[in-house]
Amino acid sequence: MSYQVKEIFYSLQGEGAHSGRPAIFCRFSNCNLWSGKDEDRASAICKFCDTDFVGGDEYTLDCLVQAIAAKWPGGGKPYVICTGGEPLLQVDIPLVDALHNAGFEVAVETNGTVGKHDVAAKLDWVCVSPKADARVKLDQGHELKLVYPQAENHPSDFERMGFKHFFLQPCDGVEGSMKMAIDYCLAHPHWSLSLQTHKIGGFE
């Protein structure tokens, strides 16, 4: 059993309900909606991704847990966010169990297309961020975060899904997206605004 990971780093959660919380980010390589290569962006299902998830290192289960644990500075409740790429292509129950045994709360940020309800049920926090017209199979969790606007998606497509929090996040690089997201949240208070505070604050 091995996992391909692009990077592991310690920072603050920049988005959503846990914005500002110290966390270790474990960024898994690969995604099912884009190869990560610029030459493939035009034909990708998700065209606006700004994350580098190509390549990385291979870890065994024990080595990955050790590498994650080594990044925690001590104190507080250790918290790890499995992100990507698409983390649920690789995150499995043995990894979640091992991280729990190491004392971590375990979160995932996923596009929701992979499903893996058995893995999701073991997680402490599930954030689903729908992309383009890819069908969301993981339709319940703690937080749904929709990059807005997207031509293929409308907030009303998701608001009946089983999430505790619903966020609109202005699409970086789209002119007027901030005002559009603010106006939509004000008109539809089922939704709250999520800002990319890591970009505003200048942290990773």
Automatic annotation (TrEMBL):
Names of the cofactor(s): Mg(2+); [4Fe-4S] cluster; S-adenosyl-L-methionine
Domain Radical SAM core as annotated: residue spans: 18-204
Residues the entry annotates as binding substrate: L12, Q13, G14, R27, T83
Function: Catalyzes the complex heterocyclic radical-mediated conversion of 6-carboxy-5,6,7,8-tetrahydropterin (CPH4) to 7-carboxy-7-deazaguanine (CDG), a step common to the biosynthetic pathways of all 7-deazapurine-containing compounds.
Gene3D superfamilies: Aldolase class I
Annotated binding of S-adenosyl-L-methionine, by residue: F48, C49, D50, G85, S129, P130, K131, Q169, P170, C171, D172
4Fe-4S as UniProt keyword: yes
The entry's keywords: 4Fe-4S, Iron, Iron-sulfur, Lyase, Magnesium, Metal-binding, Queuosine biosynthesis, S-adenosyl-L-methionine
The enzyme's E.C. designation: 4.3.99.3
GO molecular-function terms, A-Z: 4 iron, 4 sulfur cluster binding; carbon-nitrogen lyase activity; magnesium ion binding; S-adenosyl-L-methionine binding
Residues annotated for [4Fe-4S] cluster binding in this entry: C31, C46, C49
PANTHER family linked: 7-CARBOXY-7-DEAZAGUANINE SYNTHASE
Family membership noted in the UniProt record: Belongs to the radical SAM superfamily. 7-carboxy-7-deazaguanine synthase family.
Name of a matching Pfam family: Radical_SAM
Protein name per Swiss-Prot or TrEMBL: 7-carboxy-7-deazaguanine synthase
Self-association and partners: Homodimer.
Cofactor note: Binds 1 [4Fe-4S] cluster. The cluster is coordinated with 3 cysteines and an exchangeable S-adenosyl-L-methionine. Binds 1 S-adenosyl-L-methionine per subunit.
Enzyme class, broadest EC rank: lyase
Catalytic reaction annotation: 6-carboxy-5,6,7,8-tetrahydropterin + H(+) = 7-carboxy-7-carbaguanine + NH4(+)
Stored NCBIfam families: queE_Cx14CxxC
Binding site for Mg(2+): T51
Pathway the protein contributes to: Purine metabolism; 7-cyano-7-deazaguanine biosynthesis
Gene Ontology BP annotations: tRNA queuosine(34) biosynthetic process
Domain of life: Bacteria
